[in-house]
Amino acid sequence: MLSRLTRPQALAVCALPLVALLATVGLAPLPFSVAQPGMTANVLGENKGTPVIRISGAPTRDTTGQLRMTTIEATSPDADITLGDVIDGWFRTDQAVMPRDSVYPAGDSTKEIERYNTEQMEESQDIATEAALRYLDRTDDGIEVTLELADVGGPSAGLLFSLGIIDRLDGDGSGGDLTGGRTIAGTGTIDADGAVGAVGGVALKTQAARRDGATVFLVPKAECSDAESELPEGLRLIPVTTLEGAVDSLVKLEKNPGSVPNC
């Protein structure tokens, strides 16, 4: 049959299966999630009318400045992501395409994932409190800390929670604010000993931070290169590996900014 067709006609006939295949691939769901800069919240203030940090059993300080935890907003685990969505995300600086399994636990339902993220957040809050009180050497003082942040899951706010508790209880250690009156943002997990861990999505989180007024961003040192890849103008990156190092950098930022490391 093809021998009786002209060359253009034969090429058109041969191309039909390929076009059909590409069309099918373009419309078929792919195992990716598309993420973008999410909300930020000042842990020293209120979220939806409720103080993020409440402390009893010890005097607390009034603070100035802000400590803003940052998030990314990803497509839901049951969303259909097509080839077109992936290609569009690759060419945009305000989006990132990630394997779905790197964002959500594989095989879990949406409700199970939400429950898992909530549990991670609650565990992170407990650990952040312990890390802060250990840093201040006040674990035996009977201090009770309640942390509440609606509609946010996962452990990546741990560092900012710890810093917020320290600022409310002790400030910079000499009567001033840990923030120096600035809007400080950041991300990072925390363990009870104060070690800061990587979290992912930092390039998008820097965009969210700058959008909401931050001029300084605390980033896990291992993720400096990722944070620098799409760094907004006017945002300074400070690498951190420990809670003690983060506090030290913020104190020096006010008194001797040239001694504070950059990514």
TrEMBL record:
Q: Where is the Lon proteolytic domain?
A: 154-244
Task: Return the InterPro entries for the record.
Answer: Lon_proteolytic, Ribosomal_Su5_D2-typ_SF, Ribsml_uS5_D2-typ_fold_subgr
* Taxonomic superkingdom: Bacteria
Q: Give the transmembrane region(s).
A: none
Return any one Pfam family short name. Lon_C
Designated name of the protein: Lon proteolytic domain-containing protein
